[in-house]
């Protein structure tokens, strides 16, 4: 039985979760860019940073997956928004549903963790995206904000770290 942890991470928070999960489970962790043949694995744990609703690298990686009936698939998103907020979870799951094959979505166990952000490290495109988004939603009353926008407004232009490895426990139980 061959297992793999695959991660999609721009700024390292997802990679930190993946490496810690790897350490605790003894399953190798690699970046999605280095996956050679995904169909060789029976158990696939995919961790991806959330970028404008997408899970970094997930669609590209899982597209090549076939014959999933005997496989275990675990998907983990890492974002800034509150991963315990029901509406936020629904949002993320609906996005995932539209980004992968139906059979994979139905088979996958999905988890949500919180990452972090450091605006001083963002590339130009990401900084611009956040600025546009911030300007578009900053004047909406707090009670009308989505969890995603609220998290973005609260952390705008800052350095925040919400990484909490205890969130990995439930994923390890599932593995
Ligand atoms: C351009 C951009 C878009 C983002 N979109 C989302 C989002 O839709 N939902 C969310 O919860 N977090 C969003 N984030 C926050 C990232 O998901 C968060 O910083 C995460 O920890 C990044 O993972 P990484 O460090 O592994 O790249 C966004 C961040 C950037 C820079």
Write the layout of secondary structure elements.
Blueprint: E1 3-8, H1 13-25, E2 29-31, E3 43-51, E4 54-55, H2 58-62, E5 72-79, H3 86-97, H4 102-107, E6 109-114, E7 116-118, H5 124-137, H6 147-155, E8 159-161, H7 169-174
Parallel strand pairs: 1-2, 1-3, 3-5, 5-6
Antiparallel strand pairs: 3-4, 7-8
This protein binds flavin mononucleotide.
The site of flavin mononucleotide has 24 residues, from helix 1, strand 3, strand 5, strand 7 and helix 5.
Q: Which characteristics define this entry?
A:
single chain, 175 residues, alpha/beta, Rossmann fold, six-stranded mixed sheet, two-stranded antiparallel sheet, binds flavin mononucleotide
The structural domain count equals 1
**Large-scale geometry:** globular
Specify the number of helices.
Answer: 7
Output mean pLDDT: 95
Ligands bound, unique: flavin mononucleotide
What's the oligomerization state?
A: single chain
Helix content: 25-40%
Question: Helix/strand-derived class?
Answer: alpha/beta
Number of strands: 8
Rg estimate, integer Å: 16 Å
Which homologous superfamily in CATH is the superfamily? Flavodoxin domain
Low-confidence stretches: none
User: What does the main sheet amount to?
Assistant: 6 strands, mixed
- How big a fraction of the residues is strand? 15-25%
CATH topology: Rossmann fold
Output the CATH class name. Answer: Alpha Beta
């Amino acid at each position: 039985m061959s297992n793999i942890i695959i991660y999609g991470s721009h700024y390292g928070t997802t990679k930190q979760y993946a490496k810690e999960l790897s350490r605790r489970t003894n399953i190798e962790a690699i970046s999605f860019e280095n996956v050679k043949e995904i169909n060789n694995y029976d158990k696939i744990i995919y961790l991806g940073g959330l970028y404008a609703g997408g899970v970094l690298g997930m669609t590209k990686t899982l597209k090549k997956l076939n014959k999933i009936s005997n496989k275990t698939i675990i998907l983990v998103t890492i974002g800034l928004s509150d991963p315990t907020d029901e509406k936020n979870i629904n949002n993320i799951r609906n996005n995932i549903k539209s980004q992968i094959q139906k059979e994979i979505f139905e088979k996958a166990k999905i988890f949500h963790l919180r990452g972090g952000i450091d605006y001083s490290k963002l590339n130009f495109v990401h900084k611009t995206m956040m600025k546009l988004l911030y300007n578009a939603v900053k004047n909406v009353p707090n009670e009308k904000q989505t969890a995603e926008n609220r998290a973005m407004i609260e952390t705008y232009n800052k350095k925040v770290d919400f990484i909490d490895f205890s969130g990995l426990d439930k994923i390890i139980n599932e593995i």
